[in-house]
């Protein structure tokens, strides 16, 4: 099929019509969208970057297998677990504790599996009574807003490069034609990187020192996982497993966001039970391999919204790229030369798209904010998510062990409880398809 006969504006659900070369480029774009955030987690926690890429690739493919290949989601490393890793490793002072943290991550994935079974046992309508749009919408909004400061911080390192990247993405997306219009992220990075080269903002020293091939999983670099009856392991469990409450809600919000973006209701088909099972088992696998927890990535949802290429095959291509690159430390070093300012410029768009999709989710589901009940739930969720996130969440002791709940976890719990307690919960989950058009920057 020629490019002239393809209507990009309506969304493309079968990328094969674009041809193999274009699909590979699209997969590379998704791979780049997740790369910066995914590798940042191991850099902050002391885990292996290569192992993290391996877990992201394998986890994404496992997720797609369990979801019948229907959901265009990429699973990268979760930032929600950073606090847990910091506590367990004593802010990096005790790296020998990281295997216990990885084991706790594996157990946290089983929380997803349990909830998946509950949906299968009691039905999605009964379970989703706890997660109406008045709860999930504000949480989607909060996810984007929580990420926003990170984008600004990255931009501050070099506002020129951030502006070039941001401007290129907008120009390509609004005025571009053909492949230029659906590759704004990759083009934005390349153009900004060229400017970085001209201004001397790129350091190539690490590339020469890196080898071309290396195994992504080896005990010497990150210690795999450790399970025993020690106080360190028990403390790691109490610290990290509760974080699953936040990431599970993030998952529900992300699946709702992807559904709103693509116009297909993935909560109904293949079902929230399957998506939770896929995400949970991917996280368990990552922990057992010595990597950070996986989570559905909002960055890739932003790419879906910008490009309107909704075929999950493109995401699986990105996963294969991640697998291949996990064996190449040289490429990792090359990617790490991309200045932080460029990442900030790209994130500026993607993170905003997430919150915008959350707003759309509330609007399309006709949530009535003249109703005090709905207004209170949304208000509490947003203040809890943003307010508690700004102070590092809540830390309390259980049997002499510190447990931390992030702002998003607190918001999720508060929203669910308020929705269950306050009278007037007349929400009925609609398993019909979502026919809405995906969010886009196009005018």
From TrEMBL:
Membrane-spanning ranges: 23-41, 47-66, 73-92, 98-118, 130-152, 158-175, 182-202, 222-245, 313-335, 341-363, 375-396, 402-422
Pfam family, any one: Xan_ur_permease
Membrane topology: Multi-pass membrane protein
Organism expressing this protein natively: Subdoligranulum variabile DSM 15176
Family listed: Belongs to the nucleobase:cation symporter-2 (NCS2) (TC 2.A.40) family.
Keywords from the UniProt entry: Cell membrane, Membrane, Transmembrane, Transmembrane helix, Transport
Subcellular location: Cell membrane
Protein name as it appears in the record: Permease
């Amino acid at each position: 099929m020629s490019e002239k006969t393809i209507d990009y504006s309506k969304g493309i659900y079968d990328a094969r019509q674009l041809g193999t070369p274009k699909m590979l480029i699209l997969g590379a774009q998704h791979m780049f969208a997740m790369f910066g955030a995914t590798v940042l987690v191991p850099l902050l926690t002391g885990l292996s970057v290569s192992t993290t890429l391996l877990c992201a690739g394998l986890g994404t493919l496992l997720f797609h297998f369990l979801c019948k290949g229907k959901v265009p989601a990429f699973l990268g490393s979760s930032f929600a677990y950073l606090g847990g890793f910091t506590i367990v490793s004593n802010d990096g002072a005790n790296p020998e504790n990281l295997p216990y943290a990885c084991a706790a991550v594996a157990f946290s994935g089983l929380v997803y599996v349990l909830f998946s079974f509950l949906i299968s046992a009691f039905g999605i309508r009964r379970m989703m009574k706890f997660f109406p749009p008045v709860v999930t919408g504000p949480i989607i909004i909060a996810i984007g807003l929580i990420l926003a400061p990170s984008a600004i911080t990255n931009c501050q390192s070099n506002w020129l490069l951030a502006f070039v990247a941001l401007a290129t993405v907008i120009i390509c997306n609004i005025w571009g034609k053909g492949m230029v219009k659906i590759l704004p992220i990759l083009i934005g990075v390349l153009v900004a990187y060229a400017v970085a080269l001209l201004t001397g903002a790129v350091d190539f020293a690490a590339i020469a020192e890196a080898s071309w091939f290396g195994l992504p999983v080896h005990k010497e670099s990150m210690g795999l996982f450790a399970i025993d009856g020690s106080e360190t392991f028990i403390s790691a469990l109490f610290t990290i497993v509760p974080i699953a409450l936040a990431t599970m809600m993030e998952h529900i919000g992300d699946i709702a966001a992807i559904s709103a973006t693509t116009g297909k209701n993935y909560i109904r088909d293949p079902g929230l039970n399957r998506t939770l099972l896929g995400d949970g088992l991917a996280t368990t696998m990552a922990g057992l391999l010595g990597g950070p927890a996986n989570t559905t990535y909002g960055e890739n949802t932003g790419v879906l919204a910008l490009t309107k290429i909704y075929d999950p095959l493109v995401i699986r291509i990105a996963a294969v790229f991640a697998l291949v690159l996990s064996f190449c430390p040289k490429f990792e070093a090359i990617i790490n030369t991309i200045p932080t300012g460029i990442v900030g410029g790209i994130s500026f768009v993607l993170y905003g798209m997430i919150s915008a999709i959350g707003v759309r989710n509330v609007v399309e589901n006709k949530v009535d904010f003249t109703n005090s009940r709905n207004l209170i739930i949304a208000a509490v969720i947003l203040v809890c998510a943003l307010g508690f996130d700004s102070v590092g969440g809540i830390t309390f002791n259980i049997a002499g062990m510190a447990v931390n709940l992030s702002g998003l976890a607190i918001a999720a719990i508060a929203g669910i409880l308020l929705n269950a307690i306050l009278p007037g919960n007349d929400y009925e989950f609609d398993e019909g398809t979502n026919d809405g058009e995906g969010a886009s920057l196009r005018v």
